[in-house]
Write a structure and sequence with these properties.
By secondary structure, the protein is of the alpha/beta class. It folds into two domains: about 5-145 and about 155-190 and about 235-245, Vaccinia Virus protein VP39 (Rossmann fold, 3-Layer(aba) Sandwich); about 190-230, no CATH class. It has ten helices and seven strands. Strands 3-2-1-4-5-7-6 form a seven-stranded mixed sheet. Helix 5 crosses helix 8 (about 165-175) and helix 9 (about 195-200) runs antiparallel to helix 10 (about 215-225).
Length: about 250
Amino acid sequence: MLDYDEEAARYDASRGGEPRAAAAAEAVLALLPAGTRGLLDVACGTGIVTRRLAGRDGLRVTGVDLAAAMVRRAAARLPGAVVRADSRRLPFRSGQFDAVSSVWLLHLAPTGADARAIVAECARVLRPGGVYVTTVDKAASHNVGSDIDAVLASRPPRAARDEASLVDSYAVDRGLVPAGRGRFPGRGQGRSPRRTLADLRRGWFVTLPPGEPITETFAARLAALPDQDRPRPDPWFTLRAYRKPEAPADA
């Protein structure tokens, strides 16, 4: 697992920068209902997407992240609007926000229980009538059918904490109902063999620890691919939206 305090300095440049952030923000905003005024962006990272969410007229955005280095960068982009906290224990009152987003978070959950806890907290701080928007199936999104994907296909599997059907079940368990879907391109994230090999060496792939014999086998296969610096196609990421029903009117 990557250390996101160490990753903060290169996070934006290594993940598509502003073009990818713009695509993500536009897709999230498209799923928010009219009249949304307060948004919580959970796992805001460097704030590169959060800042674009905050650019929508009339929308007050708060960011939250656990990694201190990420929070510092996000706070520089959104002064006074970023909090350091664990997404499984959000420091906000119930029903505080009109909308909640978590982009590229649930796949990082150590266990299914952690992913469930994150969704539960996002639902708790959401007001009745509000919408929770999250990415799902992130790992699968990176499989674009390239020669790199063919090399990586036989690596040891890891359970996908953000599998769409699981996230659906976590949301339903908290009383949320499906409210829409979206997709957006991971601009600038098309993998090249050389870049994938570098990611492999620094622990990007959880089931291939750096320095292990199995990891070196995959490294050799990646190094043997043609066009080492040619990016393969960009991934497409998937969003799911869930609405918190309004409280029933008194009889």
